[in-house]
């Protein structure tokens, strides 16, 4: 994947290759460019396969702090001031998330939401936006995907009067479990939940911090639907659109802050 970053009179081409669960940076190349180009505009093109594994990485195009790059997709409101308040919250959330270069290994740019958790106002904004969307949707189950779905799921569940169900990696839950296998770029993985945690006919929200290729969310949806649960929507704080995880979800709605 090549990402074109335009800063003043230079063009910087960042090249990435996909390996396992991460994006690795190959090299940086600077080229001359007309000084009339708009500042800090970025153009990105991705050739990554939909099935590529990995989640917490980003390209240069997805790291801009311009809030117009982030869509909370909240229901339109006739009150312009109320919409402005929502935009302010999105801006605070965006600025509270940092990117860590070269973690967990060189060439990887890691989307870190721990700084969002250190900011009580931005963290509350995040939970509030989700609660406002789901409080009247008759949701009885909030299913959180390991591990960061465990951070956002419980406060949302409490606020809307739903139960929280952890969806865990293999061999983490102590009781009888039902599992769903899903594909990675190399090999497979599983997600599990306790037998009896949900009942046929319940309505569920699946939540995680980030969607990249969408494999984990698809597995969570399949697991819930196998036992007769209606998945109302999936929700994430961050989306990496170049990896086309939304497309992989098919007709299942996705809400992203």
Automatic annotation (TrEMBL):
**Any idea which UniProt keywords this protein has?**
Cytoplasm, Glycosyltransferase, Purine salvage, Transferase
Describe its assembly.
Homodimer.
Catalytic reaction(s) noted: AMP + diphosphate = 5-phospho-alpha-D-ribose 1-diphosphate + adenine
Pathway(s) where this gene product acts: Purine metabolism; AMP biosynthesis via salvage pathway; AMP from adenine: step 1/1
> Which source organism?
Cynara cardunculus var. scolymus (Globe artichoke)
- Enzyme Commission designation: 2.4.2.7
Might you report a single GO cellular component term? cytosol
Report the record's Gene Ontology biological process terms.
Answer: adenine salvage; AMP salvage; purine ribonucleoside salvage
Task: Cite the PANTHER family for this sequence.
Answer: ADENINE PHOSPHORIBOSYLTRANSFERASE
Question: Which residue intervals define the domain Phosphoribosyltransferase in the entry?
Answer: 123-252
Protein name per the record: adenine phosphoribosyltransferase
Under Gene Ontology molecular function, one entry of this record is: adenine phosphoribosyltransferase activity
Q: Does NAD count among this protein's keywords? A: no
């Amino acid at each position: 994947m090549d990402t074109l970053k335009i800063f003043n009179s230079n063009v910087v081409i960042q090249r990435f290759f996909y390996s396992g669960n991460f994006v690795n940076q190959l090299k940086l190349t600077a080229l001359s460019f007309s000084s009339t180009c708009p500042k800090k505009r970025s153009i990105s093109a991705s050739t990554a396969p939909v099935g590529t594994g990995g989640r917490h990485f980003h390209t240069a195009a997805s790291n801009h702090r311009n809030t117009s790059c982030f869509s909370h997709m909240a229901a339109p409101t006739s009150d312009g001031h109320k919409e402005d308040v929502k935009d302010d919250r999105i801006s605070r959330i965006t600025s509270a998330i940092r990117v860590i270069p070269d973690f967990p290994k060189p060439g990887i740019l890691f989307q870190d939401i721990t700084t969002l958790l250190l900011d009580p106002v931005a963290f509350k904004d995040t939970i509030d936006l989700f609660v406002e969307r789901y409080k009247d949707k008759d949701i009885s189950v909030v299913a959180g995907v390991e591990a960061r779905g465990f951070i956002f799921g419980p406060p949302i569940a409490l606020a809307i009067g739903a139960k929280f169900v952890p969806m865990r990696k293999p061999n983490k839950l102590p009781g009888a479990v039902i599992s769903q296998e899903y594909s990675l770029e190399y090999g497979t993985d599983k997600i599990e939940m306790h037998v009896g945690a949900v009942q046929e006919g319940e309505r569920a929200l699946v939540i995680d911090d980030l969607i990249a290729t969408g494999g984990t969310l698809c597995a969570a949806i399949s697991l819930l639907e196998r036992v007769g649960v209606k998945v109302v929507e999936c929700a994430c704080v961050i989306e990496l659109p170049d990896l086309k995880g939304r497309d992989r979800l098919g007709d299942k709605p996705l809400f992203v802050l």
